[in-house]
Amino acid sequence: MNTTTAIPAPPYVIRIARRDGAATLGVLRDRPFDEANVWDAADLADRLAAAAGHPELTVSFRAGDSDRWLTVDEAATATAE
Questions:
Q1: Domain count within the chain
Q2: Does 11 score more than 50 pLDDT?
Q3: Predicted local distance difference test score (pLDDT) of residue 68
Q4: Would residue 45 count as lying in a domain?
Q5: DSSP structural state of residue 56
Q6: Of the candidates 72, 74, 59, 68, which has an alpha carbon nearest to the alpha carbon of residue 28?
């Protein structure tokens, strides 16, 4: 059975954490991120690049007014379907 996860609309809050849930390494400014905010976008790019080489880390995001985190893997699956 295929389940599709709806990708929330921007703005987003971005979180980088350990996959085992032991620690959250950073929440981007702990405020909504949107592409109009260039300074935050550059900071996000740096953080994602740093996390990319570490399989023990996961990147997730949520809509600014939501309490549900969506991982990048879930977003890719939802987009592919």
A1: 1
A2: yes
A3: 77
A4: yes
A5: T
A6: 59
pLDDT in tens, 23-57: 666 665 445 555 555 456 566 667 777 777 777 77
Contacts made by residues 68-74, CB under 8 angstroms, sequence distance 24+: 68/8, 69/15, 70/5, 70/7, 70/8, 74/5
Complete edge-to-edge strand list for the sheet that includes strand 57-63: 24-27, 12-18, 57-63, 70-71
Instruction: Tell me if 3 is assigned to some domain.
Output: no
Is residue 49 in a domain? yes
pTM of the model: 0.46
Partner residues linked to 39 by β-bridges: none
Alpha helices (H) along 1-71? 38-52
Where do runs of H (alpha helix) occur along 1-81? 38-52, 72-80
| Domain range for 48 | 12-80
